[in-house]
Amino acid sequence: MSLDTFRTETRAWLEANCPPGMRVPAKGEADICWGGRNWTFASDDQRIWLERMAERGWTVPTWPKEYGGGGLSKEEGFILKEEMKAMKARSPLDSFGIWMLGPALLKYGSEEQKREHLPKIARGEIRWCQGYSEPGAGSDLASLRTKGVLDGDEYVINGQKVWTSYADKSDWIFALVRTEADAPKHLGISFILIDMDTPGVSTKPIKLISGKSPFCETFFDDVRAPVSNVVGKPGQGWDIAKYLLSHERAGIVSDAVSGGLNPVGAAHLAGEVDEKGRIADPILRGDVARLTIDALAFESTLRRVKDEADKGEGVGAKASILKYVGTELNKRRHELNMSALGSDGLLWEGEKEEDGEAARSWLRSRANSIEGGTSEIQLNIVAKRVLELPGT
Amino acid sequence: MSFVLNEEEQMLRDSARSFLTETAPVTAFRKLRDENNPDGFSRDLWLSMAEMGWTGILVEEDHGGADFGVFAAGLLLQEMGRTLTPSPFLSTAVLAATALRVAGSEAQKAKWLPKIVSGETVIGFAVDERARHNPEHINTTAKKQGNGLVLNGTKRFVANGAAADAVIVVARNEDGAPCLVLVDCNQKGVTRKARRTVDSHLPADFTFEDVTLDGDALLDGADNTEGALKHILDVGRACIAAESLGVAEQAFDVTIDYIKEREQFGVPIASFQGLQHRAAHLLSEIEMARSIVMKALRTLDETPSQAPIWAAAAKAKATAVSRLATSEGIQMFGGVGMTDEYDIGLYYKRAQAAGEFLGDDAWGAGQVANLSGY
User: Fold this and answer.
1) CATH (domain of A209)
2) Is A110 among the domain residues?
3) Which of A53, A277, B285, B313 has its CA 20 to 30 A from that of B167?
4) How far apart are CA B32 and CA B93, in angstroms?
């Protein structure tokens, strides 16, 4: 099928199948569909949209069909995205399974693991969270101490993770566990899949400056996980983690150019526009224009990196550039949202569900340049691996 | 739309790079500057560019050109930015050739395009009348008189103006609508004053005083001259943005080489995190500029109706990034970065001048806001 035909057919299918309620921008967290065993749909439209898209494999359009994906080429996947954007269709399903675990399983997982886990991610049946950071292991992630000791064909896991997003709502966790105590720091880590229902797993939410927070602490007390739940080989966890972090970075950066409130919309909401619809404050207007320019440059860079990857050039450390630029851009967007909203942006709570959302999103965005490796860590990676600057 | 170079484009870039680094390196530019060359560029080099087909890169094959597209023209300018090579390429082979292509009659194309392709004619493109770029501020008039025209007005800092044989002038007709007039510089009533700029280029100011022209001086081949003018300027902006990108890339490369070599406190200064983070930030910015410049150039070739916002945004980004890369370069070079002996200062100066040409980053931001409807 030619790409033009694909575009025409995709548009027609989306027109016919995307429910009206899914064609308006998500107002807040509650409008995002995460799926999982305990998921309650916010509306029938949300459920129908997920079912229809999952049926076609379009929750994960470029994954292979045998694992629940749509089997689309990258170019087709991009067209689907464009067409969804054009009709303002919401994403049918967001999840760490899609953004992070899926790509890692596709690359490192056994055939059995792929068949077991990928279709459930694609259909939104299982919700995943990520167990990486620990209280003593942030930027220096490889110093993590959560320990797995082999007992027969099971690992017995003890330790604590922190910043596990939505751990309290998730069904499974993919975690980095030190399984070889005597191996060098980066070589003794395994990547293990753990059912959160396993006895000994517990979670505790963390309250943030943004008030509500998706983050939790996650505790493992003599948690048993079968050896068959190790992805790749034992001790290969750090390689997988690095690969997956680059996908996490890609996930975080996609925020920067899509979805959510932008300063132009914010200025309209606050009534701070002139009769022509221009942002009334000329200096703010200029700042917003510079943000637009940087967002266009960033969007173009995402396309370029994709094209280069298709041609066989690795993304590699360039993911760090994307993560750094994308997150800093997103923070700027939220700062400008707050400027454009003026005092309206300061609202913390009110009668409507979306009241306070702007301030909370703004506060939440501060974490973008900390999570997934701080901006400073990204700059270190670029300096070391891309520019090959000497260490001190 | 592809963000990678195809084989032909890669060959063009590679051959341009080796030609320019051999024939027109920064030392050649210094020589032109130091001997006060009256053209501001090398005529021999310009003829070599013609021999290689560069002058016809935007000219249709019917008129002897290669018709390779705006993206390819941008690739060449990016390489010229790297070597700081001055030439009439942008004014003549890009702006004038595009103007003739989109607004010239068949007769005008047949008369002028082969002369551009052969390298025998240098044509300037005169738009600005005030200090800052603004194509709306046109007071120059080209009014009908009998079968001909009479031209009055002034133009400032016309690129390659000192060497130009002719200029295409943006003027207003008797109805106040924009029009394009091709004027021979030897015409009676045309006076010019060469202006030496900070980057050692030689633009000129032009005054047109009751210049009487034949009717065929008016480029009237376009259905909509105003739209054609916007397109010509967008092509120019995307192309000068590509040059600015080349300036930024080369300035960055020499800076990184330098900080890896330069030792203080017994270690290379590149080992200090204070410089590492700045260097990594710069690389990130250059990558962003590279992508948006490619996007603008390709859009002009493939879907020109969508090009205005991309050309404005690319121009703004490339301007800002080239100025940042070169000023950070001077800082990282330290004291020697301030000396004339080192090249980094030459890049800094070119970044400033190229950034100003056809609108700087502030101008581009204003355009982006207008075009986005906010």
Assistant:
1) 2.40.110.10
2) no
3) B313
4) 21
DSSP-derived letter for residue A103 is: H
Q: Please state, in angstroms and rounded to a whole number, the distance separating the CA atoms of residues A178 and A190.
A: 6
Residues of B in contact with A325 (CB under 8 A): 284, 287-288
Structural domain includes residue A107: no
User: What six digits make up the tokens of A47?
Assistant: 């459920």
Q: How distant is the alpha carbon of residue A269 from its chain centre? A: 28
A151 bridge partner residues:
A154
Q: Where do we find the tokens 């075009």?
A: B371
Q: Do A298 and B288 touch (CB under 8 A)?
A: yes
- State whether residue A128 is helix, strand or coil: strand
Alpha-carbon distance of B227 to B177, in angstroms, equals 11
Contact A297 B288 (CB under 8 A): yes
Contact B110, B63 (CB under 8 A): yes
Sequence letter at residue B73: A
Domain hosting residue A139, numbered range: 128-236
Q: Say how many C-beta atoms besides its own lie within 10 A of residue A379's C-beta.
A: 22
- The CB-side HSE value for A238 (13 A sphere, CA atoms) comes to 16
Smallest Cβ–Cβ distance between B281 and the set A288, A289, A379 belongs to A379
In a domain, A109, yes or no: no
Separation between Cα atoms, residue A203 and residue A215, nearest integer Å: 10
Chain A residue with the nearest C-alpha to that of B252: A387
- Pair (B291, B318) in one structural domain: yes
Each residue of A290-337: pLDDT tens digit?
Answer: 999 999 999 999 999 888 888 887 777 888 999 999 999 999 999 999
Give the count of domains, chain B.
Answer: 3
Catalytic site residue A354? no
DSSP A326-366: HHHHHHHHHHHHHHHHGGGGG----SSTTTTHHHHHHHHHG
> Number of residue pairs across A and B with CB atoms under 8 Å?
132
Is the ipTM higher than 0.90? The answer is yes
Q: Are residues A194 and A286 in the same domain?
A: no
Predicted TM-score (pTM) of the model is 0.87
Which residue is catalytic, options A83, A248, A357, A371?
A: A248
Kindly report, residue by residue over B323-361, the tens digit of the pLDDT.
Answer: 999 999 999 999 999 999 999 999 999 999 999 999 999
Nearest CA in chain A to B293: A297
Give the Cα separation of A366 and A331 in Å (integer). 6
One-letter amino acid for residue B242 of the chain: A
